[in-house]
């Protein structure tokens, strides 16, 4: 798509993207933020890894008043996946006649003693998928093999994996199964608050999780913890407007759930996606890297679909997991430390040779800092 | 995993849409968002359309800030004159 700028020159216009990156609008919002901000220190958490990328890519953190701090939360799906899960996936990958299908990032996450990438090098059949439906197609084409999809991600991804399970169920593709480590966001936010480890004055709530769930999942945080929650989009104008909305709530002593990202998030979410998600999955306890086991924060496959549950199809008993010594991903996930606190950061840990999950995923805090903030902090 | 950018639907074949952004085409499964038409903007996650972009809401948000930015610019201009 193209358009013309004020001097008549052809420019490429990405509709609803470029406008939300307009420096003039950014400046107008910054002026408002400065006006609303009192000198008291305020800490806001961006829960979603996508928001972390926006903040550092555009240098949003540098545009804000110095006492307004943004802390990254547990919203990168690859990062919060426990080492034990990787070990289980590796154990399955080593079995005969198995194909592991996964989103790309997972393959590079270090397990206790190997990674899926290393297993692939050693001959395991591991394939990268763009969509969970790709994994169903692989199963269809390889009836003599068992295809195991690594189901990770939050409420945004779970319905897409549910759709894949439903499709396999409908078409009787019985050599397809999912190793589910899906997680749900509100319980993790609650666990963070209950731990008392971080002092927060507001939540920048995930945009695409909310597009599925709707905005009411945060009601209890506003009500019971008196913390403002604003659902945000992913462009600079979105993030800044969200921060301004939170400041205005703080200044008028309100704690509400507001929706800055109304162009993509409806109050009631996506009912079709939710229906499918709860058809296939049921609530379960889940292990989060850094946060431990959080009751009711995971999604297990329901009994009706047990034939598609890799935990039941395969023996996945593995020895207790071991994390890389020195990696502080766990503390980063809880918002109590930053990547530059890690002695391995940049020295032995980098995106080419990641030692922890936060350095693997592009949404991970360490990877984001490596890419956008390392130089300014380590001149 | 999430392409947080809206893409324009250019074709629909049954349960699948083809959407475009910046000249690149993506396939998007419509199982969890069946009610999509050619010309709609959609958000695609893991190969699935998860939500449709509400263009009125998109423009409203922008308009508020455009007005403020315009006002600020005029104020600056008046100061200078
Ligand atoms: S820099 Fe690497 S080792 Fe350190 S916390 Fe991040 S991922 Fe872990």
Q: Could you explain the architecture of this structure?
A:
The complex is a heterodimer of chains A (379) and B (81). With 379 residues, chain A is of the alpha/beta class. Chain A has three domains: 2-77 and 186-259, Rossmann fold, CATH 3.40.50; 78-183 and 269-313, HypD, alpha/beta domain 2 (Rossmann fold); 329-377, no CATH class. Chain A has helices at residues 23-36, 49-57, 60-63, 77-80, 83-93, 116-121, 132-141, 158-170, 185-195, 207-213, 219-225, 236-251, 271-280, 310-313, 329-333, 365-372, 374-377, and strands at residues 2-4, 10-12, 42-48, 68-75, 98-102, 125-128, 146-151, 176-180, 182-183, 202-205, 229-231, 257-259, 281-288, 292-301. In chain A, helix 8 packs across helix 13 (271-280). Chain A is globular and about 65 Å long. Chain A starts with a strand and ends with a helix. Chain B is of the alpha+beta class. Chain B has one domain (7-80): SH3 type barrels (Roll). Helices cover 32% and strands 42% of the residues of chain B. Chain B has one helix spanning 55-80, and strands at residues 2-13, 16-21, 24-29, 41-45, 48-52. The longest helix of chain B has 26 residues, at 55-80. The relative contact order of chain B is 0.16. The model of chain B has no long low-confidence stretch (mean pLDDT 86). Classes of the chains: A alpha/beta (379), B alpha+beta (81). The interface between A and B is large, with 52 and 35 residues. The complex binds iron/sulfur cluster. Residues 327-329, 332, 339, 342, 344-345, 349, 354-356, 358-359, 366 of chain A line the site of iron/sulfur cluster.
Backbone structural class of chain A: alpha/beta
* End-to-end separation of chain B: 51 Å
The CATH homologous superfamily of the largest domain in chain A: HypD, alpha/beta domain 2
CATH topology of chain B: SH3 type barrels
Which regions of chain A are unreliable across 5 or more consecutive residues at pLDDT < 50? 1-12
Which range best describes the helical content of chain B: under 10%, 10-25%, 25-40%, 40-55%, 55-70% or over 70%? 25-40%
Q: Percent range for helical residues of chain A?
A: 25-40%
- The CATH class of the largest domain in chain A turns out to be Alpha Beta
Number of strands of chain B: 5
Strand count, sense and closure of the main sheet of chain B?
5 strands, antiparallel
Largest interface comes to: A-B, 52 and 35 residues
| Helix-strand makeup class of chain B | alpha+beta
**Bound ligands, each once:** iron/sulfur cluster
């Amino acid at each position: 798509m193209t358009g013309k700028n004020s001097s008549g020159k052809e420019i490429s216009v990405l509709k609803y993207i470029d406008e939300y990156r307009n420096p003039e609008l950014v400046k107008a919002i910054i002026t408002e933020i400065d006006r609303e901000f009192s000198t008291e220190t305020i800490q806001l958490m961006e829960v979603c890894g996508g928001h972390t990328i926006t903040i550092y890519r555009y240098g949003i953190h540098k545009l804000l008043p110095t006492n307004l701090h943004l802390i990254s939360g547990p919203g990168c799906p690859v990062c919060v996946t426990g080492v034990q899960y990787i070990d289980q996936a590796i154990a399955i990958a080593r079995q005969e006649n198995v194909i592991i299908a996964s989103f790309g990032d997972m393959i590079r996450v270090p397990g206790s003693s190997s990674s899926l990438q290393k297993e692939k090098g050693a001959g395991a059949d591991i394939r990268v998928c763009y969509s969970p439906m790709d994994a169903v197609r692989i199963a269809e084409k390889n009836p003599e093999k068992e295809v195991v999809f690594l189901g990770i991600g939050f409420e945004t991804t779970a319905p897409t994996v549910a759709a894949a399970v439903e499709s396999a169920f409908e078409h009787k593709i019985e050599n397809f199964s999912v190793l589910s480590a899906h997680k749900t966001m509100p319980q993790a936010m609650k666990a963070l608050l209950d731990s008392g480890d971080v002092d927060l004055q507001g939540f920048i709530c995930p945009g695409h999780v909310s597009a599925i769930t709707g905005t009411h999942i945060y009601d209890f945080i506003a009500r019971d913890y008196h913390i403002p929650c604003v659902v945000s989009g992913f462009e600079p104008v979105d993030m800044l407007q969200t921060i301004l909305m939170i400041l205005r709530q703080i200044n008028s002593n309100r704690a509400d759930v507001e929706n800055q990202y109304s162009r993509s998030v409806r109050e009631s979410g996506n009912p079709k996606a939710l229906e499918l998600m709860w058809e296939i999955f049921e609530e379960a306890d889940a292990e989060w890297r850094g946060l431990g086991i959080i009751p009711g924060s995971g999604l297990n496959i329901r009994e009706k679909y047990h034939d598609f549950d890799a935990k039941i199809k395969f023996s996945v008993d593995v020895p207790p997991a071991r994390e890389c010594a020195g990696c502080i991903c766990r503390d980063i996930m809880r918002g109590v430390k930053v990547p530059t606190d890690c002695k391995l950061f940049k020295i032995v840990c980098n995106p080419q040779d990641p030692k922890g999950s936060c350095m693997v995923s592009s949404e991970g805090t360490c990877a984001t800092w490596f890419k956008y903030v390392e130089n300014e902090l380590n001149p | 995993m999430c392409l947080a950018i809206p893409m324009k639907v250019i074709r629909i074949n049954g349960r699948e849409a083809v959407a475009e952004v910046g000249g690149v085409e993506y396939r998007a499964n419509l199982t969890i968002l069946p009610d999509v038409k050619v010309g709609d903007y959609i958000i695609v996650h893991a190969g699935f359309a998860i939500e449709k972009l509400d263009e009125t809401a998109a423009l409203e948000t922008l308009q508020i800030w455009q007005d403020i930015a315009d006002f600020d610019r005029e104020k600056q201009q008046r100061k200078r004159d």
